[in-house]
Amino acid sequence: MKKSERMQVLVNLSQRKEDEVAKALAKDQARLQHDQQKLQELKDYAAQYDQERNLLGLSPYLTTNYQHFVNRLQQAIQQQDQQVKRSQQQVTMSMKRWQNARAKTKGMDWLKDKSVREELNIESKQEQKQIDEFANRAFFERMRS
């Protein structure tokens, strides 16, 4: 087996690893998008709820219930905001892993291409040597005749 063929096996393995990391990155990006959307929905709901409260005159009893609800809603927003930050960190780490995997694949591919070029160069020299030997034999045979 030629060196370039052995290198191709390594390139294929590296490419598979890169593909796995890319899938994980896509999954993390989808999770981030979902978390961001959920946060925005909570914020929109809080704003809508606050706007409706202003339109209604609330009794002291309802005001207390309202305040408890608003506090829980704000806690949910803060928790979701923290989740978004964690998801963003995960995407950043996944992106770095993918970049490293991509660089490794490119490096392996470059080495394989280098091996192919070296093999072609060696084959070309061998062919040229055979052509020269054939030409020399033909020349010497003509000289003997």
From TrEMBL:
Intracellular or extracellular location(s): Cell membrane
GO cellular component: bacterial-type flagellum; plasma membrane
BP-aspect Gene Ontology terms: bacterial-type flagellum organization; bacterial-type flagellum-dependent cell motility; chemotaxis; protein transport
Principal location class: membrane
Coiled coil (residue ranges): 32-90
The entry's keywords: Bacterial flagellum biogenesis, Bacterial flagellum protein export, Cell membrane, Cell projection, Chemotaxis, Cilium, Coiled coil, Flagellum, Membrane, Protein transport, Transport
Domain of life: Bacteria
GO MF term list: cytoskeletal motor activity
Similarity comment: Belongs to the FliJ family.
PANTHER family (UniProt xref): FLAGELLAR FLIJ PROTEIN
Official protein name in the record: Flagellar FliJ protein
Taxonomic lineage of the native organism: Bacteria, Pseudomonadati, Pseudomonadota, Gammaproteobacteria, Oceanospirillales
